[in-house]
Specification:
alpha+beta; Alpha-Beta Plaits; 2 domains; 4-stranded antiparallel sheet; 17 helices; 10 strands; 42% helix; elongated
Amino acid sequence: MAVELAYAMITPYSLHKSRTGGIIGRLLSLSQLDFVGVHMYAPSDAWVDQYLALLRKSDLGNPVREAFIQYVDENLRRDNPLGLSNRCLVLLFRGENALNRLLDDVVGHASPKVRGDTVRGTYGDFQNWPDGRMKYFEPAVICGPDPATVREELEFLARTAATDGGIVEDSIKLPPDARNVQTELVILKPENFERRSRRPGNIIDVFSRTGLYIVGAKILSMSTAQGEAFYGPLLDVFREKLQGNIEAILRQKLKGAFDFDLPDEFFAAARQMLAERNARTEFARIVQYMTGVDPRKLKDEADRRKPGPVRCLALLYRGEDAIEKIRRWQGATNPEKAEAGTVRSDFGRDLMRNAAHASDSPENTRREREVIGMGQTDPHSEFRQVIEELLGRK
């Protein structure tokens, strides 16, 4: 069976209602497909017109085909009946018979029959008047409907990834009196993607309690160079704050090793002597965890700039007091001390594998966004490169 590329577009209404986490959880855990890309769009009217032209090429004999076309025409435009931001979140999947598996196994087909075993059954709505006319339609997710045209749709998404998508901060409609509007960076760490699971979606669901808006998304495979730049400020922290750990370990290991007591001056000198080496070792451990590569074993600069073998999901959240709200729901660094109901309390394992990173200040948000390539919309678009590369392999 042929390996295919397919997409699922979470609609503006689903994003606005914070159904994002639940939908993503199902898409990632149930499709049995490889999650290979994610991208935000806030399309122009010209984009919607071109997308509609592609959808109209599909003729599946589906009774709700026209409902989909009308839905896209009305709801994906910047000026839409509900007055919502027209943000869409597109997830990319790859695998055998990808489109049909996505539709049949996870997303489901639009139907007026009440059910809850599919994404559309749970998060979508399809209601008719008694005479059969459409009363209300919300599909929750839009997929490429036809294998015959999905390649054209993917090529279209690739071409417009930078012009109509990327970092879509300006697409959010905040109240005129909004104060302290910020964009916050969140990274779901590698342990969330060790196997197919609902964990990423469940974490996003917790962050939805902030009431903030997702305005950027990308799959992140940090290079060693990025990891070192991202976590660089921790070196100074480790040098100072971990000296007590060094002394405690030395006192424990050396207790009773001699027939005399070691003076405090010895431990003070030893902790100073080992502070740099210990800090760099701890720093290398974090970089290795986030990139999948031990930086101490790399000699070639080109290797340091290659994407690592593990992946994360980077998200940008925007709204009032975004940094404080995200960090409140993230919880304390140590999962054992995190307040119940927070991300790290529910999903963290230890100090390193604590589920999610969130920037701690506006300055660090800007710095970290630049390091991972989310400072602004990339004119070359990594998402476009992913689509073109994978389509080229078919």
